[in-house]
Amino acid sequence: MSFNIGHILSSMSPVSLAILMFLMAMAIAAIGVTVERVIAFWRSANESRAFVKVVSPMLDDWDLDQIIKLSNQHKNSALAALFGPVVARYQRGLEHPDGGLTPVELARNESERQKEKVGAELRRGMNVLATVGSIAPFVGLLGTVVGIIAAFQGIGATGSGGIAAVSTGIAEALVETAFGLMVAIPSVMLFNYLNARVAGIELSQSRALGELMDEMEGHHGSIGSRHQKQAA
Hints:
Elements: H1 5-11, H2 14-61, H3 64-73, H4 78-95, H5 103-122, H6 126-158, H7 163-231
């Protein structure tokens, strides 16, 4: 029997066709999520590089207002999405002390909350890839089982038997399992790739935030020393 996709589709039952369409929808969803995430990571990387170039002199001058303003301008940068709220919380802590915590401690707490928020945004849609990769083989197997049932029902209806009578139907039914695996394997690979990209981005953000915290501690220490000298 030659592999003819048109013949296979025409001989499938409506239930098998519905399962195949569902697998195709899962494949399209996985591709869509991957393309959207790759574009989002590319935009974030470009804007983050541009943000770092401009924000570095502002950090040297410790111009908090300009840092916050610049962060708000880079909407697609994951790094700017962290820096803006953290610096803003530090600035509010300087102006309005809260609960006995230092501005640096308030900023550090805010950084942890923002890292969780940005991490969730970076992983947006990746649960679709994980779901497709885990259930697509079983959906394909379901289509195969339905196809085999239909083949044996055909034998019962015609009264014919033997392997020749069912081989064509079984071969066509196994196409569902093959298609399920074709959907699942790339989905798992793409999920692992995107997950590695997210881990790399989060590592870079942690390093950048650590440097920002060091700057805050240095400037806050300088401010505290000046206040002590003035009080003396």
